[in-house]
Write a structure and sequence with these properties.
Helix content of chain A: over 70%
Mean pLDDT of chain A: 90
Radius of gyration of chain A: 22 Å
Shape of chain A: globular
Largest sheet of chain B: 6 strands, mixed
Protein name (chain A): ABC-2 type transport system permease protein
Organism (chain A): Nocardioides pini
CATH architecture of the largest domain in chain B: 3-Layer(aba) Sandwich
Keywords (chain B): ATP-binding, Nucleotide-binding, Transport
Number of helices of chain B: 11
Shape of chain B: elongated
Low-confidence stretches of chain B: 295-308
Structural class of chain B: alpha/beta
Strand content of chain B: 25-35%
CATH topology of the largest domain in chain B: Rossmann fold
CATH superfamily of the largest domain in chain B: P-loop containing nucleotide triphosphate hydrolases
Family (chain B): Belongs to the ABC transporter superfamily.
Number of strands of chain A: 0
Radius of gyration of chain B: 23 Å
Largest sheet of chain A: none
Oligomer: heterodimer
Number of strands of chain B: 13
Keywords (chain A): Membrane, Transmembrane, Transmembrane helix
Chain lengths: 274, 308
């Protein structure tokens, strides 16, 4: 068998040709879109987002007597973005898998060989995920709102793009869905197991608020709004009234959870043997 | 150049790598030999900054791998041919790696051509044979055209064609002036590939010598048999020989040639019934080298079982 001479790498200057956050992000984007299971999960999530809302809106129109009324903008956007929570769940799983799929085959060692500064890998994966998913969710949310608006016009529901609340609903929905993915990534790095991280994510979002609710009233009242699940829900509210944090503050708390998760993930990954 | 100094790694109560020091030089293939579990992979992982040493240092081109400005362009590595996602194509795997150092399709095509996987580039890695996965691993290692190449068991599971191919590739890389550091648990394989051998057993450095010297030093053994093996062994050992019992009151002697042994037995009026030179295989030499290290472990285990 012949042994061709290894050709030199194509770039002539070899200085400062190392991994940067931009390069690692591109690399991770390649990984994200070259696994069919990831593509299927992402597609399913987006489909849920822009199909479920309009379907429920249609229900409002076809059988108004059996449906909940949509008296205000908040009710209308929550009908339109009805698929959002399912989409967020699926994107959370995608986040988990985008990290944990590297562990069973120890692919992560090849990754850390190419990019020994592991913080860059954690950051690059988060950037690649956000860059790919955020626009898609935003498009999905806007589409769901627009289709629902057209449908709900029949029952004179107050859904209109003239209200800034409608835009906020789309943006908050996108932040919410991407946030699930990033929390999934953080838990994936920390736990290294797909099943473990997925359950931890569900625990964080669904079980933890119930447990905190069992605490004595003053404590639970103070802590509850700061939980990821509650902040995420409060962030998506269109009206400023109602329980919990005001949406802008809730958004800050929500993003804080993402940041904290990724920081803990980076610290954990850097300390551990790969 | 890879410089390893007093490198130590402890996993819980096991000492996987025990105060190892050696240097891997450019321009030749250095074989890293040892039985399974001798600490070869752990050492390589520490060189690549994947595992943190308990003590000592592993430097590449004068600094630790993690601090190199462009690590994958300095050191190419294949630690395990399985380190590819089975559902990803060879092309996608290599593209993701190439992107981390700002390379693209052109470089991916070059390394695919180099390892002969061009026609399989769009197949999922999970459908590859072990030999093809080794080729993919080598392609990944060479993506940054590195001056140093670290490969863990690259010939594992290869057919004879594949072994010859890897061997000639490694030699060619070394001839180009690169540093090539390759581990194996098969002495015979390494003896034909490497110009220099670093041998470890149970985490300890056993030998660090040019291959031809290791082979000549351990090429033969003298078998001596007589009615007084204990006295015979003492006399030979006092004269500088390395003596091991070989069963049936016979001894295996190294470090003394047959003429010296005959002279000693005559001087000490020892009766000898048998005195022959036995050729030894490379595997025997390897076993002998790692023997003490292995024994150490066996004793250790026994001790533990006896005293609960």
């Amino acid at each position: 068998m012949s042994t061709p001479k290894p050709a030199p790498a194509t770039t002539p200057t070899r200085h400062a040709q190392g991994p940067t956050i931009a390069r690692v992000t591109t690399s991770e984007a390649v990984k994200l879109r070259t696994l069919r299971s990831h593509v299927v999960l992402l597609t399913t999530a987006i489909l849920f987002l822009f199909v479920l809302g309009p379907v429920q809106a249609l229900g409002q129109v076809l059988a108004p007597q059996s449906a909940q009324p949509v008296p205000d903008l908040g009710a209308a956007t929550s009908v339109a973005l009805n698929g959002g929570v399912t989409a967020a769940l699926l994107l959370g799983v995608l986040g988990v898998l985008s990290v944990t799929s590297e562990f069973p085959t120890a692919l992560v060692r090849t990754t850390f060989w190419a990019v020994p500064k592991r913080g860059l890998v954690v950051g690059g994966k988060a950037m690649a995920f956000s860059r790919l998913v955020l626009p898609l969710v935003l498009i999905g949310a806007v589409t769901a709102l627009e289709v629902s608006r057209l449908v709900l016009a029949r029952v004179d529901a107050p859904l209109t793009w003239a209200e800034p609340g409608t835009w906020w609903a789309a943006v908050a929905m996108s932040l919410y869905a991407v946030g699930w993915g990033l929390l999934g990534q953080a838990l994936g790095w920390i736990l290294r197991s797909a099943v473990g991280a997925a359950f931890a994510l569900l625990g964080l979002m669904f079980v933890l608020p119930m447990l905190v609710g069992l605490l004595p009233r003053p404590v639970s009242d103070a802590v509850l709004p700061l939980l990821a699940s509650e902040a995420g829900a409060a962030m998506m509210r269109v009206d400023q009234s109602g329980p919990g944090l005001a949406p802008p503050f809730a958004a800050i708390v929500w993003i804080g959870w993402m940041a904290a998760g990724l920081v803990v993930a980076t610290v954990t990954v850097r300390r551990r043997d790969a | 150049m890879i410089e390893i100094e007093h490198l130590t790694k402890r996993f819980g109560s096991t000492l996987a790598v025990d105060d190892i020091s050696f240097t891997v030089r450019p321009g030749l293939v250095t074989g890293f030999l040892g039985p399974n579990g001798a600490g070869k992979s752990t050492t390589m992982r520490m060189v690549l900054g994947l595992d943190r040493p308990t003590g000592g240092t592993a430097h590449v081109n004068g600094r630790s791998f993690v601090d190199l400005p462009s690590p994958a362009r300095a050191v190419g590595a294949m630690l395990d041919a399985g380190q590819v996602h089975p559902r990803r194509t060879a092309q996608a795997h290599l593209t993701a790696l190439a992107e981390t150092i700002g390379e693209g399709r052109v470089r991916v095509q070059q390394v695919l051509d180099l390892v002969g996987l061009t026609d399989q580039a769009r197949r999922r890695a999970g459908t590859f044979s072990l030999g093809m996965r080794q080729r993919l691993g080598i392609a990944a290692a060479l993506i940054g055209d590195p001056g140093i190449i670290v490969l863990d068991e690259p010939m594992n599971g290869l057919d004879p064609d594949g072994i010859i191919w890897v061997r000639s590739l490694l030699r060619r890389l070394a001839d180009e002036g690169r540093t090539v550091f390759v581990s194996s648990h098969l002495m015979g394989e390494m003896a034909q590939t490497a110009g220099h051998l670093v041998v470890v057993g149970r985490g300890r450095l056993v030998a660090d010598v040019p291959t031809d010297r290791l082979l000549s030093d351990h090429a033969s053994v003298v078998r001596v048999r007589g009615p007084e093996p204990t006295r015979l062994a003492r006399v030979l050992a006092d004269a500088g020989g390395t003596v091991e019992p070989a069963g049936d009151s016979a001894l295996h002697v190294t470090d003394l040639d047959p003429a010296q042994i005959a002279r000693l037995t005559l001087d000490h009026r020892l009766e000898v019934h048998e005195l022959v030179t036995e050729r030894r295989s490379l595997e025997d030499a390897f076993l002998e080298l790692t023997h003490d290290a292995t024994d150490y472990r066996a004793d250790h285990t026994t001790e533990r079982t006896v005293t609960p």
